[in-house]
Design a protein that fits this description.
Layout: H1 6-14, H2 19-26, H3 30-38, E1 42-46, H4 52-62, E2 68-72, H5 86-95, E3 101-105, H6 112-116, E4 126-130, H7 137-146, E5 152-156, H8 165-173, E6 178-182, H9 189-192, E7 204-208, E8 241-245, E9 267-271, H10 278-287, E10 293-298, E11 301-302, E12 311-312, H11 317-326, E13 332-337, H12 352-361, E14 366-370, H13 377-383, E15 391-395, H14 402-407, E16 416-420, H15 427-437, E17 441-445, H16 452-455, E18 461-465, E19 472-473
Parallel strand pairs: 1-2, 2-3, 3-4, 4-5, 5-6, 6-7, 7-8, 8-9, 9-10, 10-13, 13-14, 14-15, 15-16, 16-17, 17-18
Antiparallel strand pairs: 11-12, 18-19
Helix pairs in contact: 4-5, 7-8, 10-11, 11-12
């Protein structure tokens, strides 16, 4: 292979995705070592980076064209040696001149001072900080001002961030297209509204307060004026992906304004959001005809009745009907119902007929049902005629039996099936479906009536797991 043209060798290397294979290839010859080093564009390091500063300098020297670097200290202990610190990060910033994408995860020795070295990076377009305790608002402001090309910013678990002057700056002077804020206690939904004109450019937004489901506060925005109806009349028509999780909303207050403003939305995730009602989903469906993916994670909320169990999920079939009528491109649907007891069916406000109406009206290719106590064998029979359905995932769906499972054998396009914690059907029904559909993949986790022996070889790729064990792969030749 030494005689291969360099361009061909580079193309071969680009097609190799496994890191172990790339490392082995680099040992074949000096030429292979050189070409592989020059064509390595991404790297993930962490606990094995020791001594951290010298090791980082060595890696940057060996791989001069790195564009994407992740430093992740997951599982780190003192026995792994000192973590990369501000000086080590400065080495990366100085030596890795092509860097455009940087992720720092669980880096305890990096703080605001270290971020100063990143502020000179004019090419840096994507920054992700995951549980980096030393980073505060001051460090983020330094990055916001210095990194002129920054288009994506992801903040997870940054507890020292207490104000959003950096966000105001990015909103007025920056060019962010993606913003993710998860579990940052000092950032509220009202702080995020200070992004101002930045919403015009944003294409992806995710906000998750990561509070407990019952840790609910009455929302209050000190800047909101009740008599001024359009207080939050921002333009966010470029937004394509929206995720709101574990927040409390009220009409015309906070992030609630998104639901009537996002006309280009393609993917929507609403996870345990309090204050979302059918009227919101109807309004959203009328303005989001391009919606392709919908994820709803719901839990029963107290509705103020006299009965002890006067709790139910906030959305009804009216929401599903609006989506069915107004979102003709919807192809991925996830419906998750958490803490809904089968003995109290009224806790879930969706019905089986409502879900089936959505599936029959839209070209649903991927369907995930979790905790759908209302979905039974009749629902599975209706699914068997879903002409677009390719991927189905069922988790904790207690009303489905062998009879319902066998109907899937007639689903015209089904190729991927995932079953988790479903105990109503057995080996025979699942194997019958797998053989009839010639499945590409079958995943079985925690289903007590399905054995490993029964699913071996029934699909091209089989993964099997029982409670307390690891996931086992059983692939068909």
């Amino acid at each position: 292979m030494e005689s291969l043209p360099r361009a061909l060798l580079e193309e071969i290397i680009k097609r190799i995705t496994r890191l172990t294979d790339l490392n082995s290839l680099s040992l074949v010859s000096k030429m292979f070592y050189t070409v592989e080093s020059e064509n390595r564009y991404s790297m993930c390091v962490g606990c094995g980076l020791y001594p951290a500063k010298l090791a980082m300098a060595s890696l940057c020297s060996r791989f001069p064209n790195l564009c994407k670097v992740e430093i992740n200290y997951s599982g780190w202990t003192a026995e792994n040696g000192l973590q990369l610190d501000n000086q080590g990060l400065s080495v990366l910033a100085t030596c890795c001149l092509s860097l455009t994408d940087l992720t720092l995860s669980l880096c305890s020795n990096i703080n605001d001072s270290g971020l100063c070295s990143l502020a000179h990076y004019k090419k840096l377009t994507c920054l992700k900080f995951n549980t980096v305790p030393g980073i505060s608002s001051a460090g983020l402001f330094t990055v916001a001002v210095g990194c002129k090309s920054l288009s994506a910013l992801c903040l997870i678990g940054l507890e020292k961030v207490a104000n959003v002057n950096w966000l105001e700056y990015l909103g007025s002077k920056g060019s962010l297209e993606e913003l993710v804020v998860v579990a940052c206690k000092g950032i509220s939904q009202y702080d995020l509204l200070k992004f101002g004109p930045g919403w015009m450019k944003l294409q992806k937004f995710e906000f998750d307060e990561v509070k407990g489901r019952y840790e609910i506060e009455q929302p209050h925005d000190p800047s909101h004026m009740a008599q001024y109806q359009y207080k939050y009349d921002f333009c966010c028509e470029s937004l394509k992906v929206l995720t709101l999780a574990r927040i409390v909303t009220l009409p015309e207050i906070g992030l609630h304004f998104f639901l009537s403003k996002c006309k280009s939305l393609e993917k929507l995730c609403l996870h345990y959001v309090v204050g979302i009602y059918d009227s919101d989903m109807i309004t959203l469906s009328h303005s989001c005809s391009n919606l392709r993916s919908l994820s709803l994670q719901l839990t029963p909320l107290f509705i103020g009745g006299l009965q002890a169990r006067d709790c139910r999920t906030p959305l009804t079939d009216d929401s599903l009907k609006a989506l069915a009528l107004s979102c003709p491109m919807l192809e991925t649907v996830e419906l998750t119902f958490f803490a809904c007891e089968p003995m109290y069916p009224s806790e879930i406000s969706f019905t089986q007929n409502g879900v089936l109406m959505l599936i029959q009206s839209c070209p649903i290719r991927d369907l995930i049902l979790t905790g759908a106590n209302f979905f039974n064998d009749e629902g599975m029979k209706a699914l068997s005629s879903a002409q677009y359905l390719e991927t189905l995932e069922l988790m904790d769906c207690v009303a489905i039996t062998d009879t319902g499972m066998r109907f899937l054998a007639h689903t015209p396009r089904l190729i991927n099936l995932t079953l988790r914690q479903c105990h109503g059907f057995s080996d025979h029904a699942v194997a019958e479906v797998a053989h009839a559909r010639n499945l590409e993949s079958l995943i079985v986790e925690g289903c007590c009536r399905i054995s490993l022996k029964a699913v071996q070889g029934v699909a091209k790729s089989v993964q099997y797991k029982v409670h307390g064990s690891g996931l086992r792969g059983v692939n068909r030749d």
